[in-house]
Write a structure and sequence with these properties.
The chain is of the alpha+beta class. It has 7 helices and 21 strands.
């Protein structure tokens, strides 16, 4: 291709990037009656903070391990009472402590929520209201707060709801006293952030993205190759030393761990209340020699709930199962599989 042709192609490519960026930053069309409360682009939006009597949540974009996306900092003010130990009286109410703060990945709804704050719009503006009207709207002694950080500045609002409300809530700017109608869907997302906005995926990649699986358990490791990997429902696993002999047991076991779903998410750096999990199984995913991701399964032994005075021999300890991956913020609690570790050890040893 001639130098002129290359220049034309380069120019078109730059034009395309400029159009894409402008589209991403472009302000959507405004509905009738809507007003912009806090004006910013997605790039200028820093964080969204919401708090009420039960806790608070901060939503913002972060780059962690080279991956940029929404993250949530959640603080739960509900007190947690220590677990009553066998044969001992219940702990006093004064022993209750607040939940530890949690930092969790946000999912697509969290990304969508941030987009609705850039800019932040209200369906209707009411201007500055007198004390009587503020009381009618529940804004005289509001306990809920919204803080939007954009363009390096913080805008703080209180959120109130009339005593006889049809579900509508109202915002008052603490700086200039102006009142706005609070978008109902946004408030619901913020109030339920720990359920609505968190990313519960174990991995961000799919089955077609890897072609080798290494299982490590019981001090041994074994690698399996993936065949028919383009079909996530019909792929097969075969030992690397005999790729033409699919292992149905390996495939069935892998399906269980591939479809693990967390029942509880722990934050970045957080450990289970019963202690640090002991890693008993690790799965490494590769595309050729390139690492795609990994999974670790750990167990936490729990003390017996049977008092020693009742049983001559100590009862066997129960356990909880946790997992973590390249994508999770930290450990996540998963359902116990009594045979999972033993099956992994058999696969890893080739028995």
């Amino acid at each position: 291709m001639s130098g002129k042709g290359l220049s034309v192609q380069a120019g078109l490519a730059l034009l395309g990037l400029a159009v894409a960026y402008a589209t991403w930053q472009r302000e959507p069309e405004r509905a009738a009656g809507e007003v912009v409360v806090v004006d910013s682009t997605k790039a200028e939006l820093g964080a969204v903070h919401y708090e009420d009597e039960n806790g608070s949540v901060d939503v913002q974009r972060r780059t962690v391990a080279g991956e940029t996306g929404p993250w949530l900092h959640i603080e739960d003010k509900t007190p947690v009472r220590p677990v009553q130990k066998p044969g001992q009286p219940p702990p006093p109410p004064s022993a209750a402590k607040p939940h530890a703060p949690r930092d969790l990945r946000g999912d697509e709804p969290a990304e969508k929520l941030l987009g609705q704050f850039a800019p932040f719009r209200s369906p209707r503006a009411f201007g500055a209201l007198d004390a009587k009207k503020l009381k009618e709207l529940g804004l005289d002694d509001a306990k809920k707060k919204l803080v939007i950080t954009a363009r390096g500045e913080k805008r703080e609002f209180v959120i109130g709801q009339p005593p006889q409300s049809s579900g509508e809530s109202y915002l008052r700017d603490t700086k200039d006293g102006r009142v706005y109608l609070m978008p109902r869907a946004l408030l619901a997302d913020l109030q339920g952030a720990s359920h609505r906005l968190v990313d519960r995926r174990m991995h961000a990649f799919k089955v077609p993205d890897f072609n080798r699986v290494m299982i490590t358990a019981g001090g041994k490791s074994r690698t399996f190759v993936v065949t028919n990997g383009q079909d996530a429902n019909a792929y097969k696993l075969a030992p690397a030393e005999s790729p033409d002999k699919p292992d149905e047991q390996a495939r069935n076991w892998h399906e269980k761990v591939w479809r693990l779903f967390p029942s509880e998410l722990l934050g970045s750096g957080e450990l289970p209340a019963a202690g640090a999990p002991k890693v008993v199984v690790r799965v490494d995913y590769q595309d050729g020699t390139r690492s795609v991701g990994w999974l670790e399964i750990g167990k936490v032994e729990l003390p017996s709930t049977v008092p020693e005075s009742i049983s001559a021999a100590p009862a066997p300890a129960s356990f909880e199962t946790y997992a973590r991956t390249e994508h999770t913020a930290g450990w996540v609690k998963v359902n116990n599989d009594p045979n999972g570790v033993q099956d992994a050890e058999k696969l890893a040893s080739g028995s």
